[in-house]
Please model this.
Amino acid sequence: MSNVTVCVRFRPLSSKEKRDLGDNICIQSMDSETFIIKDEKEEGFTFSFDKVFYEESNQADVYEFLVLPIVRDTVNSINGTIITYGQTGAGKTYSMEGPNILESDEKKKGILPRVVDGLFACIKTSADPTKYTVKLSMVEIYMEKVRDLFDLSKDNIQIKESKTQGIVLSGATEVIYFLPLSDTAEALQSLSSGIANRAIGETQMNMASSRSHCVYMFTLNQESISEKRVKSGKLILVDLAGSEKVEKTGAEGRVLEEAKTINKSLSALGNVINALTCGSPAKANHIPYRDSKLTRMLQDALGGNSRTALLCCCSPSPSNASESLSTLRFGARAKHIKTSPLVIKVSEEKCSKKNGDASGTRDESFEKILEKMSERLNDEDIKLLEELFIQAGLFVDPDSEEDLESAIQDVVQQTISSLMKAVEELRSTVEMLQRENNAMKGRLAVAERCDALPGKNADFLQKIFGFLSSFIPGM
Ligand SMILES: Nc1ncnc2c1ncn2[C@@H]1O[C@H](COP(=O)(O)OP(=O)(O)OP(=O)(O)O)[C@@H](O)[C@H]1O
Ligand SMILES: [Mg+2]
Model:
């Protein structure tokens, strides 16, 4: 059992921060793991992480410490996940991609192109002939929908769970590279075309702000020809959209809606981490993975079935101290997550069976779920639940009682909250109708009284009452 690796990276001051507060910074380095940060009231907080990368750090330093061990694990069939987290404009995308994914400057290259280099370089010259393939999928979570960045027509990819593969993106495009025939330039070209499809917007904090969470999924398969065995390792890179205080970023209209959705899914991520690190080890508490697409997608990484590393990106400026503090607190909490990733070895026989029945998996599992539930529920309830499962895009492992229970619990919770919402809407509609009804009654009474008056007086009074009733409700 090991912990999630958590590192912090402070980017250099931006030109805006320099303009506002000169060269002032709110952090004081103690060593390569510990620093003190001062908040707006000049109160100091000490933090320690696995490693701190200060403003002068290089992209290569981050890769070598945080990412390279996980790339090596992937080659040894241990799943890995690397997440960049932090305030908008804090340097997540810069760390992940570099200034440009096709950047040829060796010093500026980000994590992503270095991972491609690392995975493509894994081919060993051994006596046992092995076929190597790397599969790449790329999706973004935009406004709570998972979109395929290699095929924009697939704009609602479902997240499913498989016993052997963990969390999978059902139907997402997979670009396959056969090594050593394919080269890294090919993969970088695909990544560049996917990145061009990502939702980007301009805010006051960042000229090119990511408005979505971006997930890069690499699967490395090593098929030993003599042993008829496939070793498979999955490496997921996640460039999160940044948390933001909308009053600071000046978000309006669509950008504001995006910001609200981003903040909501990041708080769901915080809740999952709290649930994972607060509960007593003896009693497994419910982890709300299904509260957002992001947490569902990161279930393996957070749930301990993957080697996970988190890069918390921060601004060193006093003007962003409170956001940096909240990022650091998130990182400190995440540090307590325990992981114990398993080596994934898939036999040839199992592998072909799995590929063969991929389309039938959903129906089969649904049938099993319904069969289990039929002992407790009547036909109508079962139909309703089936409908809810489909609408919620839920997929559970039919053999796991725990997964089944948690899916039912989630569906029930979702249903209760949507019913409460519907009741609330209904109540406000009834209130509005009652108000309109009273107003109509008032107008009718006035009209009747006016009718009793002779000729011109009646017309005049009716006009006056009509005019007043537009200001005074219930008249
Ligand atoms: N370590 C760094 N060195 C030099 N420039 C950096 C560094 N980190 C970030 N920057 C610059 O800061 C700006 C914002 O960075 P970036 O786009 O990576 O932020 P972000 O965290 O991805 O924000 P968002 O959540 O809005 O997408 C960019 O212009 C980027 O080039
Ligand atoms: Mg970004």
Summary: The chain has two domains: 2-346, 360-475. The two ends are 72 Å apart (CA to CA). The CA atoms of residues 136 and 218 lie 5 Å apart.
